[in-house]
Amino acid sequence: MRSNNIKLLTEKYITGFCSINNGIVAKNGDTIFDHEGDLSDLLLAAYQHLQLTYPKFYKMDNLSKLGWLAAEFLLKDTFNKDEYQPEDTGVILTNANSSLDDDVKYWDSIKDVASPSLFVYTLPNIVIGEICIRNHFKGEQAFYIQPEFDARFIAQQVDYLLDKNIMQSCICGWVDVFEQEYKAVLFLVEKKKTATSVIFSTEKMNEIFNKN
Predict the structure, then answer these.
(1) What digits encode the pLDDT tens for the residues 174-205?
(2) Is residue 7 part of a domain?
(3) 99 within domain boundaries
(4) 76-81 — which CB contacts under 8 Å span 24+ positions?
Protein backbone atom coordinates (compact mmCIF):
# COMPACT_ATOMS: atom_id res chain seq x y z
CA MET A 1 0.00 0.00 0.00
CA ARG A 2 1.11 3.57 -0.64
CA SER A 3 2.20 5.33 2.52
CA ASN A 4 0.11 8.33 3.55
CA ASN A 5 3.40 10.12 4.28
CA ILE A 6 4.50 10.20 0.65
CA LYS A 7 4.73 13.80 -0.49
CA LEU A 8 3.39 14.55 -3.95
CA LEU A 9 5.55 17.22 -5.58
CA THR A 10 4.20 19.76 -8.02
CA GLU A 11 5.47 19.47 -11.56
CA LYS A 12 7.28 22.66 -12.54
CA TYR A 13 8.59 23.99 -15.83
CA ILE A 14 11.12 26.51 -17.08
CA THR A 15 8.88 28.50 -19.42
CA GLY A 16 11.61 30.97 -20.38
CA PHE A 17 15.18 32.01 -19.65
CA CYS A 18 17.30 35.04 -20.42
CA SER A 19 21.01 35.84 -20.21
CA ILE A 20 23.14 38.96 -20.45
CA ASN A 21 26.85 38.19 -20.69
CA ASN A 22 29.90 39.08 -22.78
CA GLY A 23 28.06 41.82 -24.64
CA ILE A 24 25.23 39.51 -25.70
CA VAL A 25 21.58 39.57 -24.67
CA ALA A 26 19.88 36.23 -25.37
CA LYS A 27 16.47 34.75 -24.66
CA ASN A 28 15.69 31.05 -24.72
CA GLY A 29 19.08 30.47 -26.29
CA ASP A 30 18.61 32.90 -29.19
CA THR A 31 20.65 36.09 -29.43
CA ILE A 32 18.47 39.21 -29.32
CA PHE A 33 21.36 41.54 -29.99
CA ASP A 34 25.02 42.06 -29.20
CA HIS A 35 26.86 45.23 -28.39
CA GLU A 36 30.49 46.22 -28.20
CA GLY A 37 31.54 48.55 -25.44
CA ASP A 38 31.71 48.68 -21.67
CA LEU A 39 28.99 47.55 -19.29
CA SER A 40 27.30 50.95 -19.05
CA ASP A 41 27.06 51.16 -22.84
CA LEU A 42 25.61 47.66 -23.05
CA LEU A 43 22.98 48.34 -20.40
CA LEU A 44 21.87 51.55 -22.09
CA ALA A 45 21.74 49.85 -25.50
CA ALA A 46 19.67 47.00 -24.05
CA TYR A 47 17.25 49.47 -22.48
CA GLN A 48 16.90 51.38 -25.74
CA HIS A 49 16.31 48.13 -27.61
CA LEU A 50 13.24 47.51 -25.44
CA GLN A 51 11.85 50.93 -26.44
CA LEU A 52 10.56 51.61 -22.95
CA THR A 53 9.79 54.82 -21.12
CA TYR A 54 10.85 54.16 -17.56
CA PRO A 55 12.84 57.15 -16.22
CA LYS A 56 13.73 55.37 -12.98
CA PHE A 57 16.05 53.11 -15.00
CA TYR A 58 18.61 55.89 -15.32
CA LYS A 59 18.90 56.23 -11.53
CA MET A 60 19.63 52.55 -10.94
CA ASP A 61 23.08 51.13 -10.25
CA ASN A 62 24.60 48.61 -12.66
CA LEU A 63 23.52 45.56 -10.65
CA SER A 64 19.91 46.70 -10.63
CA LYS A 65 20.01 47.67 -14.30
CA LEU A 66 21.43 44.26 -15.22
CA GLY A 67 18.85 42.27 -13.28
CA TRP A 68 15.98 44.56 -14.24
CA LEU A 69 16.83 44.32 -17.94
CA ALA A 70 17.23 40.54 -17.80
CA ALA A 71 13.78 40.33 -16.18
CA GLU A 72 12.28 42.63 -18.82
CA PHE A 73 13.59 40.49 -21.67
CA LEU A 74 12.61 37.30 -19.83
CA LEU A 75 8.98 38.35 -19.27
CA LYS A 76 8.39 40.11 -22.59
CA ASP A 77 5.92 38.12 -24.74
CA THR A 78 6.34 35.16 -22.36
CA PHE A 79 4.66 35.89 -19.05
CA ASN A 80 0.93 36.55 -18.71
CA LYS A 81 0.48 38.56 -15.50
CA ASP A 82 -3.29 38.28 -15.79
CA GLU A 83 -3.05 34.60 -14.90
CA TYR A 84 -1.68 35.40 -11.44
CA GLN A 85 -2.35 37.53 -8.40
CA PRO A 86 0.54 39.84 -7.37
CA GLU A 87 1.30 37.55 -4.40
CA ASP A 88 1.64 34.52 -6.69
CA THR A 89 4.98 35.55 -8.22
CA GLY A 90 8.27 35.94 -6.38
CA VAL A 91 11.97 36.42 -7.05
CA ILE A 92 14.92 34.33 -5.82
CA LEU A 93 18.36 35.60 -6.86
CA THR A 94 21.99 34.82 -6.07
CA ASN A 95 25.43 36.21 -6.82
CA ALA A 96 29.03 36.11 -5.61
CA ASN A 97 29.86 39.80 -5.19
CA SER A 98 26.79 41.06 -3.31
CA SER A 99 26.70 44.86 -3.82
CA LEU A 100 30.51 45.17 -3.88
CA ASP A 101 30.48 47.19 -7.10
CA ASP A 102 28.51 49.91 -5.31
CA ASP A 103 30.26 49.44 -1.97
CA VAL A 104 33.59 50.35 -3.58
CA LYS A 105 32.10 53.37 -5.35
CA TYR A 106 30.44 54.54 -2.14
CA TRP A 107 33.66 54.13 -0.16
CA ASP A 108 35.46 56.26 -2.73
CA SER A 109 32.74 58.91 -2.48
CA ILE A 110 33.12 59.39 1.29
CA LYS A 111 36.67 60.66 0.76
CA ASP A 112 34.96 63.81 -0.46
CA VAL A 113 31.20 63.92 0.18
CA ALA A 114 29.31 60.67 0.82
CA SER A 115 26.85 59.96 -1.98
CA PRO A 116 23.29 59.10 -0.83
CA SER A 117 22.46 57.94 -4.37
CA LEU A 118 25.20 55.32 -4.13
CA PHE A 119 24.39 54.37 -0.54
CA VAL A 120 20.85 53.41 -1.57
CA TYR A 121 22.27 50.57 -3.67
CA THR A 122 24.71 49.13 -1.13
CA LEU A 123 22.39 46.16 -0.60
CA PRO A 124 22.18 43.43 -3.26
CA ASN A 125 18.45 42.82 -2.81
CA ILE A 126 17.62 46.28 -4.20
CA VAL A 127 17.63 44.69 -7.66
CA ILE A 128 14.74 42.47 -6.54
CA GLY A 129 12.87 45.53 -5.39
CA GLU A 130 13.32 47.19 -8.77
CA ILE A 131 12.01 44.09 -10.59
CA CYS A 132 9.03 43.75 -8.25
CA ILE A 133 8.09 47.45 -8.38
CA ARG A 134 8.14 47.38 -12.15
CA ASN A 135 5.97 44.23 -12.37
CA HIS A 136 3.87 44.63 -9.21
CA PHE A 137 5.12 41.31 -7.83
CA LYS A 138 4.38 40.80 -4.13
CA GLY A 139 5.42 37.17 -3.62
CA GLU A 140 8.36 35.83 -1.62
CA GLN A 141 11.71 37.47 -2.30
CA ALA A 142 15.24 36.47 -1.32
CA PHE A 143 18.81 37.25 -2.36
CA TYR A 144 21.60 34.84 -1.43
CA ILE A 145 25.37 35.40 -1.64
CA GLN A 146 27.26 32.32 -2.83
CA PRO A 147 30.76 31.78 -4.26
CA GLU A 148 29.37 30.39 -7.52
CA PHE A 149 26.11 29.52 -9.25
CA ASP A 150 24.43 26.75 -7.25
CA ALA A 151 21.49 25.39 -9.21
CA ARG A 152 20.66 22.78 -6.57
CA PHE A 153 20.29 25.42 -3.86
CA ILE A 154 18.10 27.65 -6.04
CA ALA A 155 15.95 24.67 -7.06
CA GLN A 156 15.41 23.75 -3.40
CA GLN A 157 14.12 27.25 -2.62
CA VAL A 158 11.82 27.38 -5.65
CA ASP A 159 10.56 23.81 -5.15
CA TYR A 160 9.57 24.55 -1.57
CA LEU A 161 7.70 27.75 -2.42
CA LEU A 162 5.78 26.25 -5.34
CA ASP A 163 5.15 22.84 -3.77
CA LYS A 164 3.67 24.52 -0.69
CA ASN A 165 1.54 26.80 -2.89
CA ILE A 166 3.21 29.83 -1.33
CA MET A 167 3.75 30.97 -4.92
CA GLN A 168 2.60 29.86 -8.34
CA SER A 169 5.50 31.24 -10.39
CA CYS A 170 9.02 32.47 -9.74
CA ILE A 171 11.87 34.35 -11.38
CA CYS A 172 15.13 32.86 -10.18
CA GLY A 173 18.79 32.79 -11.11
CA TRP A 174 22.06 34.70 -11.00
CA VAL A 175 22.78 38.44 -11.31
CA ASP A 176 26.36 39.53 -10.60
CA VAL A 177 28.39 42.67 -11.32
CA PHE A 178 31.81 43.88 -10.27
CA GLU A 179 33.37 46.62 -12.35
CA GLN A 180 33.35 45.28 -15.93
CA GLU A 181 32.73 41.66 -14.97
CA TYR A 182 29.06 40.78 -15.16
CA LYS A 183 26.64 37.96 -15.83
CA ALA A 184 22.90 37.53 -15.51
CA VAL A 185 20.97 34.33 -16.16
CA LEU A 186 17.32 34.33 -15.13
CA PHE A 187 14.73 31.57 -15.32
CA LEU A 188 10.95 31.86 -15.31
CA VAL A 189 9.48 28.88 -13.47
CA GLU A 190 5.77 28.08 -13.59
CA LYS A 191 3.50 25.12 -12.91
CA LYS A 192 2.01 25.22 -16.39
CA LYS A 193 3.48 23.41 -19.37
CA THR A 194 3.90 25.26 -22.65
CA ALA A 195 4.95 24.23 -26.15
CA THR A 196 8.54 25.35 -25.51
CA SER A 197 8.89 24.72 -21.77
CA VAL A 198 11.26 22.19 -20.21
CA ILE A 199 11.10 20.42 -16.87
CA PHE A 200 12.54 22.55 -14.06
CA SER A 201 15.59 20.73 -12.73
CA THR A 202 19.09 21.31 -11.37
CA GLU A 203 20.57 19.66 -14.45
CA LYS A 204 18.68 21.88 -16.89
CA MET A 205 19.54 25.04 -14.98
CA ASN A 206 23.24 24.14 -15.00
CA GLU A 207 23.11 23.32 -18.69
CA ILE A 208 21.54 26.70 -19.54
CA PHE A 209 23.81 28.66 -17.20
CA ASN A 210 26.99 27.14 -18.57
CA LYS A 211 25.95 27.75 -22.20
CA ASN A 212 25.25 31.42 -21.58
Answers:
(1) 999 999 999 999 999 999 999 889 999 999 99
(2) no
(3) yes
(4) 76/50, 78/15, 78/16, 78/188, 79/15, 79/16, 79/169, 79/188, 81/135, 81/136
